[in-house]
Sequence to fold (119 residues):
Amino acid sequence: MESENLILSDQDYARLSMLANDELLRDELGRAVVVAADQVPEDVVRMHSRVIYLDKSNDLKREVELCFPDEADLKQGKISVFSPVGTALLGLKVGQEIDWPFPNGESRRLQVMNVMHAP
Fold:
């Protein structure tokens, strides 16, 4: 995991703080820089962002939408913020990379390639 701070909107931070029962997500929230929703840069991954990321461990690009657990739907590419990839990508900006532990014991290096926001 990286020591660089991640950026979260005050709205996402408040909702995630109430839901965070995962140690890795709590750690991520603890290092977040919290700003007003309209102050989050356009190239930062936030809730309901569509994200294209590169998994450097296998050179695969994927596009996903980061969502809350009750909205997750893998068929539509919607992944929960509580999933390993979801927690890893939250608050990162385009070009930023992070080493992230996965449940199988391996660590993967993920890089944010593009961020698109829902209207």
